[in-house]
Amino acid sequence: MHNSPIATANHEAHENPALLHHFATEEQQKNAASLGMWIFLVTEIMFFGGMFCAYLVYRYWYFGDFGTASSSLDLTLGTVNTVVLICSSLTVAMAVRCAQVGKQKAIVVYLLLTIVLGLAFLGIKAIEYKQKFDENHVPGLAGFHLEGHIPRHPDIPVNQQHAQIYFSLYFAMTGMHALHMIIGVGLFTYLAYKASKGVYRPGYYTPLENGGLYWHFVDIVWIYLFPLLYLIDRHP
Amino acid sequence: MANNVDALYIFLLVVSALMSLAIFTMVVFFAVRYRKQAGRSAEQIDGSHALEITWSVIPFCVFMVFFGWGAALYFKERKPPENSAEVYTVAKQWMWKFEHMEGQREINELHVPVGRDVKMIMTSQDVIHSFFVPAFRIKQDVLPGRYTVAWFHATKPGTYHLFCAEYCGTLHSGMVGSVVVMEPKDYQAWLGGGGNQPLAVTGQRLFSELGCVTCHRSDTQGRGPNLAGLFSKPVLLEDGRTVAADENYLRESILTPAAKIVSGFKPIMPTFQGQISDEQLNALVAYVKSLGQQSDATGGRGIAAATSQP
Amino acid sequence: MATAVLETGERETYLNKEYGIKSWLLTVDHKRIALLYLMGITFFFFIGGFFALLIRLELLTPAGDLVQADTYNKLFTMHGQVMIFFFLIPAVPAVLGNFLIPIMIGAKDLAFPRINLLSWYIYIIGGMLMLYTILNGGVDTGWTFYVPLSTEFLKTQVVTAALAVFISGFSSILTGLNFIVTIHRMRAPGMTWNRLPLFVWAHYATSIIQVLGTPVVAIAIALVALERVFHLGIFNPSLGGDPLLFQHLFWFYSHPAVYIMILPGMGIISEIVCCFSRKRIFGYKAMALALVGIAVVGFLVWAHHMFVAGISLYAALIFSILSYFVAVPSAIKVFNWTSTMYKGSITYQTPMLYAFGFIGLFTMGGLTGLFLAALGVDVHVTDTYFVVAHFHYIMVGGMVMAYLGGMHFWWPKISGRMYPEGWGRLAALLVFAGFNLTFFPQFILGYLGMPRRYWDYSHSPEFQILNVLSTAGATILAVGYLLPMVYFLWSMRYGKPAPDNPWNAAGLEWTIPSPPSTFNFDEQPVVTWEAYNYDEIEKEVPVAQ
Amino acid sequence: MSEHISPVKLYVTIWLALLVGTGLTVYAATVDLGAFNPIVALAIATTKAVLVVLFFMHVKYAHERLTKMVIVTAIFFFLILLGLSMADYGTRLWT
Asked: What residues form DSSP beta bridges with B262?
């Protein structure tokens, strides 16, 4: 096909320190890294996909109980967190753009902003978890109890078992997402350090770009988690 | 059923044997005929779409015969005939507990009459087990939290192996038993032995003891739906869905009543999850089903009679 | 061509370029990493094989007399987990694939050499955790980790075993990722998709499965661990959870995983059959397409493991018919290999003997798969020894035969030495005979109704004779497996030095010295020929040897 | 992959669109749309995800189809997982 890399034994290219020995050209190296990142994101889609599948099955079975459990989440904090993540995606995109145009100081600023936003997200998430512990909404702990009734059915109390399934999924999915955020913050700390050394420049910013792809992906997962977990059956 | 399964099995065996014979013969023939010889070198052939299509389409057609035959058999295996004798089965690590409609209880041994359809209504108290009687060619996993169903029709008296076929922990291989198929008269004699209370009667007693009867009345005045004639009928639910009132529906409605509210009723029934044993649950289900088989009037009387108890 | 020469006068190769533990443990050379993997998988193969032997010894007599019930359950569990996750899945891709793919496509290395090394370390960490599990009392969930047995009932090392599998999964994912990128981005000029050896196509298809499937089983097993440790309730039936959901997620990967094992084997067999028949492959495009087709359709059939588990009848229908769809490309492959031999000039060296064995055993394994896909028959034979025999025909009869065939075929390239041909043929025959004696009786046992995972069958002594045959076969098989290990090791020192192309075979790997130098090619090769150009090779060397 | 450099204005526009989408989805959840509530929620989420993928992740400007094919493949197999699982769960109650 058309993308067969035309690699020539170009010895001059090997004097470039950023070019690893087994690649013929910088172009080839860059394309390889980018494809690798996308394939990694494929595995991430399938990783979260397993949990989304479990979610779908139980939401289909226990729709009413899921509605009640969902409404017990703090919508304000959830919305704020969504906004925080969207802002962080913008700062990441800006950081990559700064590398493209060669504004090396601005890269660091945007990366630090991203880290701050990422930490803010994690902080808010921690507050939400704390609330769930205080309210006895943690599955598997003795004393789990969710007050309330099925949406629009004041006479049907929520099923405690099914509510536990909801919260199990909630903790598994948001927990796995938070783990990705923590990894992301670590990754961006490294990138910010490298950027402060002036490593990323218009010709070479692949690690930064791939880090950005990762961050955007984690953002997209949240874009789905937010309505699926927080916004089930909230209407009166 | 065993004969039907064996017929398909033998058909598969013959077709596979022919296919492998053809392939093995070709491999051996080519290996010998075209071995390296002086003065002859390999003739290059790039392939042939015509041949490739042939050996895709022909096997595919044969496979579709396998599929169709296997599927037809499966539907027969999975759908118990009406009016089968019913045996409620509770599996646990590592034993089989059976309860006949007539009230006989057995452990690891199942007595059934020859020439009668027998429907196993099974659940597990702990992990997944699997009810497997090789002689009848049937197998069905037994799951915690719901009923699964299997059926068979024994044609020859004798004693047959019963195995648990799904790995279930330490003594998985000890979770074995036997199915004793008896001549009808022997079976009747065996049934007559115990002076047991029929399962539905046990269920009826529970029905009043647990207070079910105060709401599920035989008239239309009850706070709960009238259960007479309910079994296997479609039920219209409050949320507009219609479900079939099968064993799993009855089970769920007793354990988590709020899950499926019958149209026109309020969800006031308390849950019985964790309050009754699997055996009691089976008895209740058997009782409600028995209401379906009797005429409404008899069912009503049965309940009315039971109301006199405290 | 300036070939580097060492002070000792030897040619510099990837093997003698550097010495010392560090030069191996920190290497980023795909060939050295392949050898690191070779050590890992050989180690785990013999651990798993040891468990298998104990299982067979226990089943020699009907009563459970050799080991305790719990021990037996641990044996078959750990046999399965070790063999599947630490031998079968990495074996061909991580050893032969790792070694050969860059060379076959004319590259100096995989696209991500450091990630390649990382995936070996991840594999080893997973393996160490598995060893820890074994030494710390073992695990008895069955390799399938079925809930709720694994989450709530067993008292063994379920969490560490789950973690071991989880971690090794990432090794598999990274290997697959590396291969896909390498095959897309690193091909030499002229090495078009239509010129790739089928071995490379097979690994491309395999990698797709690794990348798409492995994460799903990873999360399923992670949820089991979470359910066990934190008592989350996702599959818990007492909360209204569905144990079958775990089975769906598990088999979504674990069925395609069978193709992770067998597809690379199919790649090897294509290389061997062509070489020893001196022929181009019959129907290159159909063969490549069939590999990818099996990988894709293989994702649509997983619930055929659950026909008696309590899934819906209608879902069973869908999965049954789709299972037959996947049989068609498999049939194409068998017929095309056979046709490749037609009018060839066939010789019977050890790799070819393994290829014959593979075609026979894979055919039988595949055909018995048709029995299991037929719903009505599956009800009877699933979870019996019939299934055990079926998947061993595919995985051991198919994949291990192909693996050994490939090891013999490329051993001269890997080690620079020839293995002893006579011993090689003997071992191939022993493996074939031992294998059939071990597993053929199990088909019959299964149809007679012996359930799998039974420690004690004293209630059915009629099963004994077939079990004795099976155990007898297993001992022959064990000898057949030990022999190659012995003579491969022997040949590293005493074997005849291998020429660059001992089989006079086609393919870029045979154009470079044995063993290759670190960067494989001194000059960037440019490919101008189709795969398996045996017509041209035969013309160049009219009568080889 | 992306030598393309997007203008800041584009990024800010996408960012604003994402924020509007968030507001919209929260609002839509409070309105009774019957069966359409989840559909609307998923449609908004998907729109947001597509914006992120196309512009923030630069897929719109990728030179080759490969990146898009990779994404489509992943979504396809994810839907296979959901679809065939629901083929079981959706038909269990059929008789």
From this structure: B237
- Would you list the domain boundaries of chain B? 85-192, 199-307
Q: Locate tokens 């990967």: which residue? A: C253
Topology of domain B85-192 in CATH is: Immunoglobulin-like (2.60.40)
Residue A63 belongs to some domain of the structure: yes
C216 min Cα distance to partner chain D (Å): 9
Asked if residues C200 and C97 have their Cβ atoms less than 8 Å apart, the reply is no
Please state the length of chain A: 236
Can you read off the two tokens belonging to residue A215?
């961050």
What is residue C303's DSSP assignment?
A: G
| CATH superfamily membership of B199-307 | Cytochrome c-like domain (1.10.760.10)
Q: Are strands B117-124 and B85-92 parallel, antiparallel or unpaired?
A: parallel
User: Does residue A8 fall inside a structural domain?
Assistant: no
The rounded distance, in Å, linking the Cα atoms of C54 and C37 is 26
pTM of this structure? 0.93
Average pLDDT, 10 consecutive residues per value, chain B (310 residues): 88 94 94 90 88 93 95 92 92 94 92 94 95 95 94 95 95 95 92 80 89 81 82 83 86 86 84 86 90 50 35
pLDDT of res. C3:
56
| Interface contact B243, partner D, CB < 8 A | yes
Residues A218 and A188: beta-carbon distance below 8 Å: no
- Which tokens belong to C206? 């395999």
CA within 13 Å, CB half, C196:
29
Per the CB < 8 Å rule, is A156 touching B259?
Answer: no
Please list the residues that pair with B278 across neighbouring strands. none
CATH class of C21-539: mainly alpha
* Residues of chain C with C-beta less than 8 angstroms from the C-beta of B19: 363, 367
- Across the interface, which of C140, C284, C324 has its CB nearest the CB of B66? C324
In angstroms, the Cα distances linking C62 to B159, B186, C24, C468 are: 20, 33, 48, 10
Q: Which amino acid is at C489?
A: L
Range scoring the smallest mean pLDDT among C3-17, C252-266, C270-284? C3-17
A22-42: average pLDDT:
91
Q: What is the dihedral of CA D37, D39, D42, D44, to 10 degrees?
A: -80
Determine the pLDDT at residue A3. 41
Token pair for residue A203? Answer: 């010709």
Cα(A83)–Cα(B54) distance, integer angstroms? 60
- In total, the C-beta contacts within 8 angstroms joining chain A to chain D are 127
Q: What is the pLDDT of residue A17?
A: 66
Q: Are C169 and C214 in contact (CB under 8 A)?
A: yes
Q: What is the largest CA-CA distance in chain B?
A: 104
C-alpha C184/C-alpha C407 separation (Å) is 26
* 8 A C-beta contact, residue C56 and residue C471: yes
